[in-house]
Amino acid sequence: AKLSEDGHTTVDVGRFGPYTQSQRLGLYKQYIRQLIEQGDAYYCFCTKERMEKVREDQKANGETPRYDGLCRDIDHEEAERRIATGEPCVVRMKLPVNRDVVFEDLVRGTVTVNTCELDDQVLIKQDGFPTYHFAVVVDDHLMQISHVIRGEEWLPSTPKHVLLYEFFKWQTPTFVHLPNILNRDKKKLSKRQGDVAVEDFRLKGYLPEALINSIALLGWNPEDGQEIMNMEELIAKFNIERVSKSGAVFDVDKLNWVNSHYLKTADLNRLVQLSKGYLMEAGIVTEATWESKQEWLKKLMAPLRERVSHLAELKDHLGLFLDDTVTLETTEVADVLKESHVPNLLKALKAHVAAADEITEEFGKGIFKILQGETGAKGKGLFMAIRCAISGQQHGMDLGDLMEILGKERLMKRIDYTLAHYMMVN
Predict the structure, then answer these.
(1) How many CB atoms lie within 10 A of CB 349?
(2) Nearest to residue 22, comparing CAs of 128, 132, 133?
(3) Is 191 one of the catalytic residues?
(4) How far apart are CA 131 and CA 124, in angstroms?
(5) Can you say whether the dihedral through the CA atoms of 156, 157, 162, 163 is positive or negative?
(6) Which of 191, 299, 338, 378 is catalytic?
(7) Helices 252-265 and 208-216 sit at what angle, rounded to 10 degrees?
(8) In 60-161, beta strands by DSSP E
(9) If you average pLDDT over residues 352-356, what whole number do you get?
(10) Burial (CB count within 10 angstroms: exposed 0-12, middle 13-18, buried 19+), residue 304
(11) What is the secondary structure of 143-186 as a DSSP string?
């Protein structure tokens, strides 16, 4: 697509245009006339009411609902006279009687279907537009399509398409009918049963490369069993012969695992930009502060991405960095804070935080050596005690980075909170 001089979007026509079906009606009319003249298609004047009655009677008799062929042998001249009087009609293909239609499918192998199991398919509707079954054959031939790759639900219709290629004496393309993606109930994935559209996953903050990677593994796997693959690797390893015939269950847990891998290796600048909506919704930034907080947001994103499986979960983990209070994660954390030297250590830390203009990377790198000299605390008694006091956790990201993310005011509030609530020190 491109913009024209008046600012409107236009579409470049390729070698096989036009690509809008309404602009191709002349082509369909030309080819349907050929089928009628060959005796491979016919006009059908059956009304909707009659067809409903036929199907109801067939169902009542335990038969498969299908067209009963009433109009198959109407004389061509009579059909033309009825059309000239304005009688509505459709055009149906005229299936050979009791004939096996055989074709090869790269996933299913040799497929054989007898025409007794098929229906005289409508090719042209009353409004003059083609049905999918006619348009897809004409379009694919004229556009030189070599491989027809589609879902397995189209497999029962393929014999009709094969016959149309035969009627026109056209080369039949290679058929590939892929297994459906199933939900956990082993039923075809549907919008009625949850989020399945690309937009749904985008809104939840899944990365496109993770979604592609996950979907590629549904119904197919590489010989070496590798699961994390970029697009180049997928292209290099893909082999249609390894596609399964059975449907694959879409596993959200597996998608989350794959996406978490890509989150951990993605560029931080990119993740910050993709997370803008979630971070603004959480009240961390506004449009006015967005640009000025980019470096701080990158530091915040580095530990956050280790904790989430998709970006919409960011809000569930922001408390570690944005709350003024401290929640102890385990009883072991409480035991660390009960050690006798901790109150003086935290008071010394608070004094240095209060004296600093801001908590920078340099502050985080140098403060521990200073505190060791002032209080005598060292090793776990120094690092673990401070971590537990300001985060409520025994393990986590680099302490200097954590203090820089928290900032001066929040760091002081957390030290005060821990002193007041977990050591009863005033």
Answers:
(1) 25
(2) 128
(3) yes
(4) 6
(5) positive
(6) 191
(7) 140
(8) 90-93, 100-105, 109-114, 122-124, 147-151
(9) 96
(10) buried
(11) TT--EEEEEGGGGGGHHHHHHHHHHHTPPPPEEEEEPPEE-TTS
Q: Write down the pLDDT at residue 286.
A: 93
| Enclosing H/E stretch for 44 | strand 41-44
Condensed to tens digits (0 to 9), the pLDDT of residues 52-97 reads: 999 999 999 999 899 999 999 999 999 999 999 999 999 999 999 9
Can you read off the two tokens belonging to residue 413? Answer: 């509030």
Q: How far apart are CA 149 and CA 177, in angstroms?
A: 6
Measured CA to CA, the distance from residue 28 to residue 22 in angstroms comes to 10
Residue 149: how many other CB atoms lie within 10 Å: 15
Residue 6: pLDDT above 70? no
The one-letter code for the residue type at 285 is V
Judged against a pLDDT cut of 80, whether residue 424 lies above it is answered with no
- Specify the DSSP class assigned to residue 100: E
Position 12 scores a pLDDT of 53
Q: For residue 240, give both structure tokens.
A: 């249609």
User: b/e map of 278-302 (b: 16 or more CB within 10 Å)?
Assistant: bbeeeebbeeeebeeeeebbebbbb
**What are the beta bridge partners of residue 149?**
176
Residue 2 confidence (pLDDT) above 50: no
pLDDT for residue 251 is more than 50: yes
Query: What are all long-range contacts of 245-248, with beta carbons under 8 Å and residues at least 24 apart?
Result: 245/107, 245/108, 245/179, 246/179, 246/219, 247/152, 247/179, 247/180, 247/181, 247/182, 247/186, 247/188, 247/219, 248/179, 248/181, 248/182, 248/218, 248/219
- DSSP secondary structure letter of residue 316: G
Instruction: Note the residue count of the chain.
Output: 426
Percent residues over pLDDT 90 in the chain: 83
Q: Which amino acid is at 94?
A: K
Query: What phi, psi does 44 have (nearest 5°)?
Result: -125, 125
Helices (H), ranges, 266-360:
268-274, 276-281, 294-304, 319-322, 331-337, 342-355
